[in-house]
User: What shape does this take?
Amino acid sequence: MRLQDGEQNGELQILYETIDNAWEYEYQFAIERDEAGEPVWGEMQSTTNTRDTVVSGLTEGTRYYARIRSRNGKGVSDWSQTVSRLAR
Assistant: This one.
């Protein structure tokens, strides 16, 4: 998984490799870290998009942390590695 700038300011695009038999992908964003340095994850979102997802309404100059996992009839995968990027 990786993050890149969206087409407009305040957007980030989540890019990820698809997983065979995945029904959907769940992702989370964080902008804060706790005392241990771990991201404080926000509400889980989901998408059925198979290649990328654009998240808008972000604050320019803020660092966003993100992770993603897949879901199918057998359950959910492990979370991806956490990535981060400054929103422009």
Remarks:
- The mean pLDDT is 93.
- Residues 30 and 41 are 5 Å apart (CA to CA).
